[in-house]
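re: that chain from earlier
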Amino acid sequence: MPLLFGSFGAGFAPMLFGDPVPAAAVVLGERMRAAWTAFAAGQSPGWPAYTPARRLTRIFDEQLTVVPYPEETSRQLWAGHEFGALALMS
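^ sequence. v structure.
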C-alpha cells in the first residue's frame, strides 16, 4: 500500500522499508502510480496487454521488467479445477 499511495512516512511503511525509506522504494512507488494512473486514464501503462496466449506480466522492482507469468507451474496445477460454492454456516 505505501508504494501505491506514496504513504511512506506513516503506518507500517517504515517497518516494511526501513527508516529512512530508501530512495529506490520511493522511485518504485512513483513508477507504479504513474502506470496505474495511465491505465485508469485509458493510456498505456507501459507494458503489453495481458493475453492468455502470452501471459506477460509486469514485475515492479528496482528494474522494471515484463516476463512470462512467473507462477505458471502453480497456475497449471489448478487449471481445470472447479471450486464449488462454500457452505455457509447458519
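The mean pLDDT is 90.
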